[in-house]
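User: Fold this; tokens only.

Assistant: Input:
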Amino acid sequence: MFDNLSDRLEATFRKLAGQATINEVNIGIAMRDIKRALLGADVNYKVTKKFVEDVREKALGQDVVKSVSPAQMIVKIVSDELTEIMGGENKPLNLTTKKLPAVVMVAGLQGSGKTTFCAKLARRLKKSGKHPMLVAADVYRPAAVEQLKTLGGQVDVPVFSVEEQDALKAAREGLEEARAKGIDVVIVDTAGRLQIDERMMDEAETLKEMLKPEELLFVVDAMIGQEAVNTAKAFNDRLDFDGVVLTKLDGDARGGAALSIKHVVDKPIKFMSVGEKVDDLDVFYPDRMAQRILGMGDIVSFVEKAQETLDIEKTRKMQSRLLKNEFDLEDFFDQLQQLKKMGSIQGLVEMVPGLNKMIPKKDLDDLDFKPIEAIISSMTREEKAAPEIINGSRRQRIARGSGTSVQDVNMLLKQFKEMKKMMSSVTKMTKSGRKILPQNLPLDKLLKR
């Protein structure tokens, strides 16, 4: 997501890096490049035009502080404007209601990831202390109800459905069931449309009138680019929804939808889906997304995700073992499991400033935990604690047990030995008071077949 846009914006800022002052000429060149970058990312033309005009006006009206270069000043202005066009500030989910349950109605085109989002939202709400229930009001798509039941089972959330092909009945009776069971949030999955279908839109309007949802969320696939914005506008004209959910942002989305949709429909982006797992759902923060687009990372989100998913006690024990130089393959396996819980590697790398430049995306695409997990799982406890005892016959047994080759086992053991040596040297320097960050930790080789 945004890779191409980020690269082109950074190239523009580099051209300004050697400039002593901001003037009509260098700003004109920079704005031309930024305009091309935004249009190349499939950003709405009107949004692009307004964005460039606003940045130009603010840039020419700025006195460059002596300690700040023109390039840094432009980066700051562009960051502020990107934040503004994406909504300015985070708009949290509004579940305030005098009478429970609060209702979240979810609408969108078929294939947008709407049903999966419902389960992800239920998972998120449950982790925050709520007691959600899913209602299957998508009664037309084959297997939609079964899909929601399967997903509901994965997140351990009840799912209500009816036998009849009647969305209004499913929603009405689901709401009654929720009240009877003391459920505090009901998430209603409505039928996805293949296009703006008049009959289906009428049904959605009727559902909204009957349910009176605290939140009506429109789910849109960011992969379809500018068409996502057009679809959102058509839905909003009929349903007047409360917020947008962008899905499939971990794919090859160019980012145009995220940068255009708020301006076009004047509704906030509330969530973004960045993977296929039930935990791969993030709250949308415009300022943090602007920083990621500009290659500044998003450390705040990274820390929040770590706090949500990592086992603090295990992490403390691992740190203690590192300091004592006792880190073994069992510890490494545990750390892989914790890392996987935090979501896609690509998403995590984008959150750390500069890391996406150190590790090319093509290398991340090749990362695969499964062979490593299989190899370590095929080892005995003694072998994990003391890899040096693994001789030729043991390597053959481990390779057979893990479905890999002896060469794969050799590579894992070699790279782990190098990594442990690196960790040992870093630990010694840390104890001596010197702070150092290893530049070439061989983790990328370790994770690639």
